[in-house]
């Protein structure tokens, strides 16, 4: 049986394959994930599949990359997988999720001290593709390491960490 990326063998497997191709470092196989069914500011349950989580990329320093995974709203098993990695440091993929290509946008109104309202984005890329958003490098967005000497990027470990 042929396995295609579009068949969504699982976010941790996809992340692991991506990270192995990016770096020669030994990777931790630990993952943590959550299915998000609702968000503050959006009326009702989310009309799309949203998974968030962490994948360990350096067990010794407890370095974790954070990701958002949104399935295609059309045909998740047939549609392509797009991997979106923001260009940190300091630029989380949340900006792409909420302001650029994600399925929700903030409803821009005059601020009155209330919780912002989220509305559907009619031109979201998730209408035709599965998207894996990764906060990279370590220290960007929700990605972190307990050893603060690893922050940005260097050498063959490019997108993962920088040892001071």
From TrEMBL:
Keywords: Carboxypeptidase, Hydrolase, Protease, Signal
An annotated Gene Ontology molecular function: acyltransferase activity, transferring groups other than amino-acyl groups
SUPFAM superfamilies recorded: alpha/beta-Hydrolases
A family per Pfam: Peptidase_S10
Signal peptide (UniProt feature, chain positions): 1-25
Coiled-coil segments: none
Family: Belongs to the peptidase S10 family.
GO terms of biological process kind: proteolysis; secondary metabolic process
Listed name of the protein: Serine carboxypeptidase-like 7
